[in-house]
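Notes from hallway chat w/ T.B., transcribed later so I don't forget. T.B. wanted the structure written out for a chain they're using in a teaching module, and asked if we could keep both sequence and structure tokens in one place. Agreed to drop them here.
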Amino acid sequence: MPAAGDQLAGQVARGVARLRDLDLAKPPGVAEAISWAQALQVLGTDGLDSASAERTAGAVLKYSEDLQTVRASWLRRAG
């Protein structure tokens, strides 16, 4: 995704790597990473933050159970 820019591409790559460390039914692959970067671009964001990640989670997480797992992980980190 050359149009994503280095910062956003790096953040998406790191985010996908962290998601792959979780116990997900379908860990994100390259296609999901590209979809996520595209969704973030559509929103006009040039960086990945918690709000934009939440708004675009469906682009990278395909199962609702995986979304729940990720949200629970975020809550554990915040607590």
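Follow-up for T.B.: The chain has one domain: 2-78. Might be a good example for the class.
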